[in-house]
Fold:
Amino acid sequence: MKKTIYIVLIMLLFIATQAMAQTDRIGTAGANELLIPVGARGVAMGSSTVTNSVGADAIFWNPTNVARSENGFDLIASNMTYIADINIIYGAVAFKAGEFGSLGFSIKSLSMDGILKTTVENPDGSGQTFKPQHIIMGFTWAKSLTDKIAIGFNINYISETIDLVSATGFGFDFGVTYSDLGGLNGLDFGVALKNFGADMKFDGTGLWTEALAADQRRGSQFYKVDAASFQLPTNFDIALGYNIDLNGENAIQLSGVYTNNTFYPEQVKVGAEYGYDNLIFLRAGYIHTQEYEAEEVLYKWSAGAGINYEVSDVQIIFDYTYLPAEYMSDTHLITVGLGL
Structure:
């Protein structure tokens, strides 16, 4: 079993090394909707819950932890009004599948108000509008290999549509979590490689344009523009989490993550959660982005609260997060969930 874990860790580190080989093209990746966090609890804790998220809530942060849920079935749904009037709706389910492990399914949808369509002939707009639509659908598998070690992965189908052009592709997430690191109860270690996959490219009828050939020997003809391909925004997380049980009713969870981004500076994320009687929770987080001054980063601080109420062995979860933005409107995120 230990040999298997070592092989998995070596593979993750190798893939991460290859994915991070090019770090000098900040801001040039595509499919950046993959990076927008979902789930109010994790966002409130500074997007640092790579080790201490479980069940359906873990699908985005680290698919490994889907297997660490005490419930047989988990469901979450969230809504967030993001910058520039972008609306993000997310839903996920996870359930145990016996000896096979745990399975999960998720969907994230980004939508926005209509954008005025402009052309060469009508640079100020023709009166028509279009609505970009980005959708990510994911499948998750996770399994606990021992009482301390779990592994898992996501397969995400990515679809981007902008008027008459679209692009599709697949992204992969891999993760490993080790509980009670060094024999210390409550101390967890995790790694996650996210958004690893082949390049994507836009295609569609919107790429056809009418033009004259350079030699002018032919009349006006239609030519298809060859759109450039773009890479996915791969990142690699190394995380620690520590759960402190104070006296049975009061508990504190601390978490920290170092994130190496392919097309963005490295980040250090920290978060904390105070829980009373596993019923009421208060959370806060902070993200430090290297190479950037504090005023150059959109989101740094986060805060939130949650309620986990149990009725007839059914967990009812309600979480709220507030993200103060530096330049845009502040962001509010609400998540509801069920655990059976």
Observations:
- The radius of gyration is 22 Å.
- The CA atoms of residues 87 and 268 lie 27 Å apart.
- The chain has a mean pLDDT of 88.
